[in-house]
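INTERNAL AUDIT FORM
Audit reference: QA-55
Scope: verify that the stored structure record matches its stored sequence.
Auditor: D.O.
Record contents follow.
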Amino acid sequence: MDLPKEAVLLRIYIGEDDRFEGTPLHEAIVLKARELHLAGATVLRGPVGYGKSSRLHTAKILRLSQDLPLVIEIVDSEQAINGFLPELNVMMNGSSGLVTLEKVQVIQYGKAE
């Protein structure tokens, strides 16, 4: 699969405790992206963060089980990302996450041949 040089970065901010149909939301999003053949997805776990509620989520030793922030990044063509957004909307229903889009320039994707 080749990515166009001009692509889109979909960034999804959620909490570790967010769920979709009993599955961790971040896993559901990654599996759906894979099912729809998006170029790739990465989940990043944040040691500290806050969102709309301004409630601080941290990985400090006394608060290890807190709802830590997660960021899911998916880069693909604008058309592919736009096709994924309705699916994401269904999965995000009930979550207080944040979803952003930005144009990116792809320098390298996969192994150079």
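Auditor finding: record pair retrieved intact. The chain has two helices and eight strands.
Action required: none
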